[in-house]
Write a structure and sequence with these properties.
The protein is built from 15 helices and no strands. It is mainly α. α1 runs antiparallel to α2, α4 crosses α5 and α4 runs antiparallel to α10.
């Protein structure tokens, strides 16, 4: 019954009455029709809001784009003695080809060579033995503190034989300002004994011999080879590790793997000065916690630009040593450093 309209339902009811003589269920038919109509209206009412909702789908507001620091095309910082970097448009490091990486890495080193033409090892020394001992002592302390300590040490023990025969407690007292003085005393006395007994009191000029000495690893060995013997080597210290990863020269974290990865980007003849350039930059501008990005002469080449202070004036206040007008780390720096405006470090008593 529900399939018929209400008017047809009444006609059917009259016909049924004449045929049977009984009263047809008009009320029932009418009620069914009304129910069918109401159901239709409800269905239409349900569809209408759906169409309306479909026409006005709420749009989620997009989050505002993150502000990305863009390196200036040219260095804007007034860094003393620094030549401005040339305009470059480096490719994104993520999609950088091997050739592009080599070119960018070498470009950075050339720029740093212009900024730090006086780069040098920041440990005072007069011979290979002094450099070897000073480098071992520089672990877990600053070069400045080592430079303030070694004059007294070498005045009392000028040769490996002298230091090997010293009274440990007396050496410890001299080395106390460098920290970990007991372990360092053991190392420098041990390597001095090895030099006296196995190498005739001379520092060997081979990597495989140096790394056998107490307290001497590859980093120390390359410092000595590169600066006392003129044999190329990469010094992977904490500054070098930090910067080469910031520059995306390598993602390695192991010092030996970093050495191999970075060494493959440069001619071997460049390794020693490359190390000095990178370490100088890490100590003066590209600091661990607050890199002075706004005062960085290689900002256009750096994929990490913006990690630190980008405002030139604020960044300038973060510069250290000669770039900030402060004394350096060596008590007896090379003349080229002094000519560039560098200042000697004060002795221990004055510190």
């Amino acid at each position: 019954m529900g399939e018929h309209e209400p008017d047809d339902g009444k006609k059917t009811a009259k016909t049924a009455k004449r045929a049977t003589g009984k009263k047809a269920p008009e009320k029932t038919a009418g009620t069914a029709g009304k129910k069918a109509a109401a159901a239709g209206r409800k269905a239409a009412a349900k569809k209408a809001p759906a169409k309306k909702a479909a026409g006005k789908v709420p749009v989620k507001k997009a989050a505002p784009p993150r502000k990305v620091a863009v390196a200036p095309k040219k260095a804007t910082a007034a860094v003393a003695g620094a030549s401005p970097a040339k305009t470059v448009a480096p490719e994104p490091p993520g999609g950088e080809s091997r050739t592009a990486l080599v070119r960018r890495a070498r470009r950075i080193d050339r720029e740093l060579a212009e900024v730090y033409p006086y780069a040098h090892p920041e440990l005072d020394f007069e011979n290979p033995f002094q450099l070897l001992v000073a480098t071992v002592l520089s672990a877990q302390t600053t070069d400045l503190r080592v430079n303030q300590t070694t004059p007294a040490l070498f005045a009392k023990y000028p040769t490996p034989e002298d230091l090997a025969a010293a009274v440990p407690e007396e050496v410890e007292e001299i080395l106390r300002p460098t920290g970990f003085f007991r372990a360092k005393t053991k190392s420098v006395m041990g390597l001095s004994k090895a030099l006296a007994e196995e190498f005739g009191g001379e520092v060997p000029g081979r990597l495989e011999d140096l790394v056998k000495l107490p307290g001497v690893g590859r980093k120390t060995a390359f410092v000595v080879l590169g600066n006392a013997f003129g044999r190329p080597g990469i010094t992977v210290d904490t500054h070098f590790q930090r910067l080469v990863r910031r520059w995306k020269w390598t993602a390695e974290t192991d010092p030996d793997k970093i050495e191999a990865a970075v060494g493959s980007l440069f001619p071997k003849s460049d390794w020693t000065m490359l190390s000095h350039h990178v370490i100088f930059h890490g100590r003066r501008i590209c600091h661990a916690r607050k890199p002075a990005c706004g005062a960085c002469p290689i900002a256009p080449l750096c994929p990490a630009y913006g990690e630190g202070e980008t405002d030139p004036e604020k960044a300038k206040k973060l510069l250290k040593y000669e770039k900030g007008g402060f004394p350096g780390q060596r008590l007896k720096p090379p003349q080229s450093y002094l000519d560039a405006g560098g200042k000697p470090a004060p002795p221990l008593a004055a510190g």
